[in-house]
Structures are given as structure tokens and as C-alpha cells.
Amino acid sequence: MSKLLIRGMVLPMTGEEDFFPEGEVAIENDKIIHVGSKGSTSQDFVPDRVLEYNDDVIMPGFVNTHTHAAMTLLRSYADDLPLMTWLQTKIWPFEAKLTDEDIYWGTMLALGEMIRSGTTTMLDMYSFMDKVADAVLEAGTRGVLARGLIGNAPNGEEALAEGIELVNNYDGAGNGRIKVMLGPHAPYTCNGEYLQKVKKEADRLGVGIHIHLSETEDEINTIRKETGKTPVQWLEELGVFGGHVVAAHCVHLTEEDRKILAKNKVAVAHNPESNMKLSSGTAPIMELLEEGVLVGLGTDGVSSNNNLDMFGEMRSAAFLQKLHKGAAALPAYEILEMATINGAKALGLENVGMLAPGYKADIITIDFDQPHFYPRFSVPSHLVYVAHPGDVRTVVVDGKILMEEKELKTMDIMKVCDEVEKRAKKVAESF
Amino acid sequence: MSKLLIRGMVLPMTGEEDFFPEGEVAIENDKIIHVGSKGSTSQDFVPDRVLEYNDDVIMPGFVNTHTHAAMTLLRSYADDLPLMTWLQTKIWPFEAKLTDEDIYWGTMLALGEMIRSGTTTMLDMYSFMDKVADAVLEAGTRGVLARGLIGNAPNGEEALAEGIELVNNYDGAGNGRIKVMLGPHAPYTCNGEYLQKVKKEADRLGVGIHIHLSETEDEINTIRKETGKTPVQWLEELGVFGGHVVAAHCVHLTEEDRKILAKNKVAVAHNPESNMKLSSGTAPIMELLEEGVLVGLGTDGVSSNNNLDMFGEMRSAAFLQKLHKGAAALPAYEILEMATINGAKALGLENVGMLAPGYKADIITIDFDQPHFYPRFSVPSHLVYVAHPGDVRTVVVDGKILMEEKELKTMDIMKVCDEVEKRAKKVAESF
To answer: A23 pLDDT exceeds 90?
Structure first.
């Protein structure tokens, strides 16, 4: 049994008023057993280690609700191009060349970057997901994994079989650190029959569905032309909703679409930086929240971001809504909830995303003893509007220390960087 | 005479094709005397010191073209409020309490944060500017300083006298590190007669003018009601343009406004994060560039940002234009030009903003040997879309090392943080 005590300024994300300027979090094995003021943990708790970070903010790790982790391989490979040129001449040809080993190394790099920037859980959709699962198990993070399924592609059936195999082989692995979903890519890449088949399999396996939805105007026009409906209406009619569904983007929604998402308890993964960089548009986050839709934050893949930094994503989410809805829109604490507890709820992780007894010990510490965190008027404002990845000191997932004093403990990160450099350049030079 | 040689991946910002993967910059006293491949500096140059940063990008320091540095005192003091509530109940009452010593310490904190995040020059508009000048001289950075002038306030004339005194006492100080402008706050806080008086004084003194312009719709409506014109038309009619003018924001412009700015060679300080956070709107940067207007980037004050991070500002500038104008808008290299050479030109600094012989040695190095900078497909994309303040290693201004291996050399930064914490909290508790 391992017992860890972390002391500092504790922001448990259990409610806006909850903050311990001199606090502590007690951890036994993979779980938090106590959160409170310094010295409030039971005398019976004798920690193996105490991390004394008086000037750090101690908070739940970030939950990145939408990414394609292995796309680190394509970081800054192609930018500033029109969308279709970018996809057709750069991204797709590159991706077509990737091997399972490439995916493993690209995912390891992503996980290293995520840990360094305070992200402890990701929802990942890509291919060769068994390699992604292996990387998550090795790196020690939490991962909700979905094999991306292009139903209209020649390998649509094969991909679904792989998605099902992923459920069978990995769901619940690593002390529950891995959870598996099915990942039909989007309404415009999967026909209705295929989507219904995926939904049936998801129900049979008892897993959720992750899908891109209403990301661009092109998608809206395509689906309307094919079906006479919006993508959201179309998925509802097909019966895809009802179970656990995480829909990425949801930029272009009608009022009826928003009500459909709310009624069906579809969770939304909001990716503001990707939506801006690819010129997709501004998702109606304020309106979705008014309807009661659960919204988490995601970075999307590195080729459209170009990092996995949830601090930047929080800031961009706030800025984008404020730009359109006024300076009072989406206050800092609400943004923090989206990046932690609400993201975890969106992924169906019941005991992740806040610091409270019984919750998983997924914890990050942020070094506040730096010039940009003075004066200390508001911890939430500092976290959302000021902090950056370089401020993360120590990261714990499932009770284990994955990074301590900025040093990664579960991977040889420079070897990972070298492998990715070599592999990515080789792919780029191959066509 | 001091001689310094810096080796690494040199991005001189002299043109998009110019890059030395293994390069070096030779510095004699305050100036760059050579930029080229490793070993290309004349054998006669015997450096006192060599900084070998093979995995760092060596580039010009950032030029922050609009800020109110001492507002670090108000960092995260008040956020997420409607604009007028924020100004009237929080910002203005707080600012009214600030003493000259507060301004000194607040500015020192800002300069510490700027150096740490790679900014070597700022255009600052505030009060007690002699204290700001002292801080700039002490910290070692470059500063273009303007006493903010609220012409319609009771102390309008007194402020102008202070502004003129600042020119007389500080213009050219610190081996030219300080340059002074006059700073009429905005068309809606300075009446026409006052603006003309300021312009006359600027011409007499041979200095430029820094002004907030067309920032919000409210401003447009106010000026149109008072004068029947847009703020830009109004300033042109008053004769404020013609000399060196840096206009901050320029969010709400008509086509005619843009042509007026171009014709009069008014430089624009674009502050995308402030414009988003305060819901001011999206400045028409693409259109301004098409008209040939010189555009630099600024963070604005910390109370509307809430940091002085030019990396974030570059990213937001790119994202905001792409959101509205398509994914190909404002490529990374153009953004870097805005943040360096074009910002310097906007401030009228003739030999600042690029690495070339004869230019001032204002140089930053960025540690690229980190996971988020792999693979290394594009240095400009990495700098704009990936980098953050924690990546800056070493900073040189006017040939002097202000930060080395992340350690500030010209100030006791923890003392500065403590002073600001104490002073800011005291002000906040006083009303």
C-alpha cells in the first residue's frame, strides 16, 4: 500500500467557494482519501512520502476530451493552408504512411507533452489503437480510447472489427485507467447503415460513442443535401443518441440541434483553438450550457493546434465566448470546470476530475512562486488567463507520480523525441 | 569593449528564407556585427564569451507595441465583469490609489515577466512615467514611453506638462534605450483642442504620438454623436496624423478609415487578446495589411490579458484572423514579423527588430530541445503555434545579458514579487 501526502494551495474543483490556501491532499494507492487544511488528515495516516509545495496550486489534472494523440508526428508539418488543400495534399497522404510503431512513438510523445502540461486524461480517436493503449499503460496516464472508423472507406468493416477488439482487449485495463469507446469518425464519413451498426455494437458491448459532429459548414451542407436534415437531426433519427455519446466540435448548431443534444445527454468536446485555426467557426458554448449540455475542452490533434496545452485551450475558450457574448461570458471558474470535472463527466468517468475522498488521485501541482502569478488576487483567473505549461511542477495519476519537479518518471523523453523526429521526417520524405 | 558570440539555430527575421540551422551571431558592445553560419565570423573577432545553444532558436526579442506595464498590480484583481462595471467599480478606483512607488514596482514586475517571456522592447502608456523610465533603465530593456494624457480630466494640462518633462529628461537615455512619445489617451477622453495642443507640442519636441483609437463600438458612437465623424476621420481633420503616430486597437474601422490610416502612415498596435477578453471585437488586420498599414502586436495591460506573453498574443492574432478570414490567413512568418521587426518599425526604432549587422543586439534564445518542439518541421510554426514563455532561455538587450539560463540578472525578482504583492493587496483593501 502506498501513501502520499501533497501540501500546498488546494483548489479541489468541488465548488467555487472551496479553496484551502494552506491545504493538503492525502492519497492511498490510487485514491484520494482526504482533502482539507494543513494538518487535518487523520493522525492514523502515515505517508510514505510528503510533497511540500507551499507555493503551488494543487488541483485535479486536466481532461482533454478530444485529441488524435499520435498526430504529434505531423506537428508544424503543414500550416496556414486552405482546409481542403491541407487535408488532401498534406495530412491524409502523411497519415496513410504511418505504421503501428509510428503511432506508438507519436502517442508517447503526446503523453509526455500532456503530462508536462498537466493533462492526466485524454479521449483519443485514431488508428492502431492497441499501440495507443500500450503507450497509455506505459506512460501511466488515463485514456479513453476509440478506434476511428471511416465507415465509407474500403476498410470500414475491418476498422469496426478492430474497434470491437480494442474493447475486448483493453477496456478497464491498467486498474481501470483505460476505457474504450467506439469512434465513428463523422456523419459525412459514415453512412446511416454503418452508424446504426456501430451503435448496435456499442450497446451490445456496453460502451459509448465518440464522433466528430457539425464541425464545418461544408459538413452541414453535405448532410443536408444527402438527408434533408442537420447532422444532429440525422444522428437522432438513426438512433445513434441515447447512450453515452461524446460529440467533438458542434460548431454549427440550430436551436433545435442544441435541444436534441440536451435531451439526449450528448456531451460536447469543445475545441476552440482548432475551430479558430481551421476557420471552422465559433461553437455556441453559452447556448449549449444554457440548455444544460455538458461541455468539456479538447485540443484536437496537434496538426490543428499545434500543441496539447490545455492552459491555452482554456484561455482561448474564454476569449472566444467573450468576443461574441460580452466580457462577462464564461468566467474563469466555469472554464476550469470544463477542463477538469465536467470533462471527466463528459467521458463518463465517475470518480475523476475533482479532489475529493473516493476520487482517483489524478493531481497536478502548479508553481505559483513566479513573477507572472503576482499579485495573487485570484487563483482561478491566474490559472485560466496567465498560466502556461512550463508552470506545471508535479503530476500524479492513479496515485503514481508521473512527473516530479518537471522530470518525467515513466519514459525516456529524449529517446521518444529522437524516435519521433526520425520517423516523422522519414514519412515526410517518402512522398 | 564587450564581445559576445551566440551560437544556435539563427532565425534573423530578415526574410522568410533566411535561417541558419547551425548559425551564430557576433555582438560588439550594443550592436550586432555579424550573422551567419557557424564559424563564419571573422577570425579577428575574439569573443569575451561564447553562448553555445545548439538546440535553441536565436531570434530578435519581441516588441510589445502597446501596454500599461504597471497594471501588473491589478493582475486578476477583477475579471469576467461587464466592461463599464469593471472600469468604474474596479479598475479606475484601484488606479486612483496608486503612488509613484507602486508604479515603479509594478513596472519592475512587468519587465521581469517580459524578459522571462522574450520581450525586449515595450511601448508603455501610463502615469508616473519617470518611475517607469527608471525601471526600464534599471532592468536593462528598451522602452518607448508615453505619459497617458486624459485631456478632459482636471489634471489634463498638468499631465501634458509631465509628458513634455518626460521627453526633456529621458528621451534617448540609457544609450538610446529609452524613447519618449506623447500619449493622448483617446479621442473620447481628449477634446479636439487638447489633441491639437498635444500634436503641436509633439511636433515642437520632435516626438511621436501614441493613442488608443477606435477600440469599441461605444467609442465610435460617442465620437460620431459629438463630431459626425469616425474617430479616425476626426483625428485626421484635427491634424493629429502626419507625424509618427502609433494607434492602439483600431478594431472598428470603415474602409475610408483604413485608407486614412494608410495614407498618413499611422502604425497600428494590434491587441487580439485584450480585444477578445473585453469583447471589443475583431480588428480588420488582413484589410489593414492589404492597405499597406504597418501592424505590430501588443498585450495591452495585464488587467485585460492577464499576462505579458507575446507568444500567446502571436497565437491569438493568427487564430482570430483565421477564424474570420480562412485557415490560410496570416501565416506564421508574417505573425513573427509583426511581433519583431514590424513592431520595431511601428515604434520608429530604425535599428531594432532583426538580427543583422548594425542592428541593436536585442536577442532571445528559445530552448527547442523539448517534447513540444518535436518533430522540427517548421521553426516559424513552432514559435507561433507551440511555444510558451517557459521556453525562453537567455535574453540580451543592447548587448547586455538580462537573463541567462532563465535567471534574471538585473533585478532581485522575488523581492519585486513581494513588493507588488504587498502594495497591490494594500490598495485593494483601501476602498
So the answer is: yes
Out of B273, B371, B391, name the one closest to residue A413 (CB). B371
pLDDT digits (tens, 9 = 90+) for B99-115: 999 999 999 999 999 99
pLDDT of residue B1: 75
Report the chain B residue with the minimal C-alpha distance to residue A379.
B76
Is 0.85 exceeded by the ipTM?
yes
B172 to chain A, closest Cα gap in Å? 29
Dihedral, CA of residue A380, residue A383, residue A384 and residue A385, to nearest 10: 110
A305/B385 CB distance under 8 A: yes
Cβ distance B79 to A281 less than 8 Å, yes or no, reads no
pLDDT digits (tens, 9 = 90+) for A198-256: 999 999 999 999 999 999 999 999 999 999 999 999 999 999 999 999 999 999 999 99
| Nearest residue to B375 (alpha-carbon basis) of A63, A83, A119, A429 | A429
Copy the grid coordinates of residue A420.
Answer: 519521433
- Domains of chain A listed by start with CATH number: 3-60+353-408 (2.30.40.10), 62-346 (3.20.20.140)
Whether B385 sits inside 8 A of A76 (CB atoms) is: yes
Question: Which chain B residue has its CA at the smallest distance from A108's CA?
Answer: B371
Query: C-alpha cell of B252?
Result: 472598428
Task: Report the alpha-carbon distance of residue A34 to residue A40 in Å, rounded.
Answer: 8
How far, in Å, CA of B81 to CA of A327, rounded? 6
What does the alpha-carbon distance between residue A286 and residue A409 come to, in Å, rounded to a whole number? 39
**Omega before A375 within 30 of 0, i.e. cis:** yes
What does the alpha-carbon distance between residue A92 and residue A77 come to, in Å, rounded to a whole number? 12
